[in-house]
Amino acid sequence: MNNIQVLGKFLDQPMLVSKFQKAVPAILTSGAAAYTINDVRKAKPEERKKTALKTGITMGVTVASALAAPHIASAISKRALPEGLTKIKQNNKELVDSFVKSTNLDEKTKNILNKSKDKILNFKEVKTTFETLKDKTNGKEFLEKLIPSPQNISAKDIFSEIGYLSVYGAVPVVGGIAGGIAADRVTDKKHWKEKVPDKIKEGSYQYLANIFMCNVGAGIALGILEKLGITSKGARALGMTAGIVATGIIGGSKIANLISNKLIDPLFKKNKKDKEEKTYSDILNINFTENKAPNYLEFNSDKKPLKQKERTPEVLDIGLHTDDIATVSLLSGLKWIEPALPIMYTLSGYRAGIGYRN
Hints:
By secondary structure, the chain is mostly helical. It is about 70% helix and about 0% strand. It has helices at about 5-10, 15-40, 50-75, 85-100, 105-115, 125-135, 140-145, 155-185, 195-225, 235-270, 270-275, 280-285, 315-320, 320-330, 340-355, and strands at about 295-300, 305-310.
């Protein structure tokens, strides 16, 4: 085995995936707390209490939603969650004991296998195990059970998997919107209702452009590749990534803007004329400095908005598509990606919660 293959096997250890999954709540909570503290630190002294409440509530509800998302998505889609650490240890113990008992092994290999019952093997140990056992009787079968190989999902089953991932991504976005509304009700009792449409519009953008349509694009691309008889994992990964770019980043953005303009604005009866009369500082409110507006606002020389442009993908939006690379990896069978999804989807949920587009 070359080092890249060994690395893949190292990362695919069920024990490693399970321990990472167990650590995600602490990672996500710590990150949210650090972000909130930094947001408060940057605020003016008189605004710090309000900022702490606003950021803390929005981030707190978003994080809670992201952590609940896999359980909700699993229940709705009838898809089993990855096995827990206790079950994995039990399976490994039974598997290793049976294999060691029936196979002639040197002491070094026995020690490594005994370690694998309840601990993560390091890179060198994984390499030694596979090189030693691959030619043993039943060795390949044992190794496949100890560290299962990635299994490419077929186009036939992909939309059930996409359904799971789409629900998974929707929960943090809805949670972010709910958290943002709750935060505004606490910190701005007079005007909180006026900010609701902006949160829903950004939420629809985040979900459609950064999550749902990207999943659909990956699925369509995989179906085409299967029709063409292309089975290479590299080609599948590139094809699904191209599907994400075409259907998600481009198509999802257009659909989200259409929904915002034709459905959400009329639903909330937004008064565009009043909005155009607001000043630069009124619209940007708090977070933008050095008189620099985001790319979806245009201003004249008096710093009054000329018009509001459609929400288009920005640098951070493109960065958020790392979750779609994770989706491609997950659909390609790399299960160690799945525990990281709550962290990635929290970013979309929080941006929806603060009504980022406005």
